[in-house]
Amino acid sequence: MGPVKNLIKRRETITALPLYYAGNLLKKGSKEKDFKSFYGELRGSTLFLYNNDTQETYTERLDLELLKSLELESPYKKTTPTIITLSLPKEEVQLKMDNADTGEEWRGYILTVVNKEIPKNLQMLPGQKIRLEETLSEEKKRATKLDRPALPPRPSFMQAKSTSEPKTPACFFDVTRQEAEKMLDSNPENGNIILRPSTMPKNYALTLRQPTPRGPVFKNYRVTSTSSGYVIELDNPMTVSSLEDVLKYFLEKTEYRLRPYVASQPYDVRIDVSPPPKCMSIPPPVVPKAQVAPMLRGQTKDKLLPPTPKEEEELYVYPDDSPPVNQMSKKAQMNDELQSILKKRKENLYTETGRDDESTYKNETCDRNGRKIQWFK
């Protein structure tokens, strides 16, 4: 495998995209005054720009999927350079090609990969159009793999928390290269490696402070974020799946002689004695009053006991079928009185009163109270 093929293979490993078209061009951003020369590669729907055709890692890239419009400054003329204006969300970029035929090819390939169709009225040869059709077919297959239908929703207990930003290690700090080097130089006891954002959007950089016999040396490495992972741009680029693996790779390569930078936390240097707590008088607990007054045991016992009999009352208990003594004595007394009354009645004198043919007898007796009762017949 020749050096050119090796170079293309390395670029493909870094970008993880197929190569459709490549060539020299000039580029100028909206904030730049002059055009700069680059070697461009159209891989997938992304344009990668290199300082020259021997550079392995790209310097800039343009995501053409976000392209709003493409304008051609002048119609196809072989005698004048071709200038293409690309309107992107954040800026406008101009691409300039000195050769009009090359400019027409760039325009045809860019519009094909963006719109997924070959533009009409292209000033291209039949062989060039055939290659453009092959590019369209390959790009449609690649886009179909990326646009797979969504999987059915997973159960809630299996759903992972989605975050828009990748998980960053503890040694990640949002600082510039100069600030990272100053942090490592001022506090070498905190660590030797800092992961930080790159000047290129969505990319990262790694700054390390490596001790040598002649003094510490600072080194900075670029970490490119791609659809297939994170590419550590070395002589032999290394692709890993996460930023944690980027850090792990550097620790392994330095035989763990370096360690991630962790900001020191403040510590207290004095021990203060707290004042003794003040004595507090605690009132006795308040017992809630019962809603119903409780019975006293002595009273309850007295209520349950039978009353003490009086001295003048009889101390005898008579059965239910035997009348009491006092009742019998009363009956005997009444019987005696009745006998006395009958005896007196027999002794009464009968007197005759009224006519000759009619005799009236008067019978006198006395009641219990001694009053006289007269009976007439």
Q: What is the SS-derived class?
A: alpha+beta
Number of E strands:
14
Describe the global form.
elongated
Report the span from N to C terminus: 174 Å
Largest sheet: 7 strands, antiparallel
Rg over CA atoms: 62 Å
- The SSE order reads HEEEEEEEHHHEEEEEHHHEE
Strand order of the largest sheet: 4-3-2-1-7-6-5
Uncertain segments are 147-151, 157-163, 350-362
Measured as a percent range, the helix fraction is 25-40%
Total helices: the number is 7
- Overall average pLDDT: 77
- β content, as a range? 15-25%
Notes on the structure:
The protein has 377 residues and is α+β, with helices and mostly antiparallel strands. A 7-stranded antiparallel sheet has the order 4-3-2-1-7-6-5, covered by helices on one side. A 5-stranded antiparallel sheet has the order 8-9-10-11-12, with helices on both faces. Strands 13-14 form a two-stranded antiparallel sheet. The longest helix is centred in the C-terminal third of the chain and has 23 residues. The N and C termini lie far apart (174 Å). About 7% of the residues have low confidence.
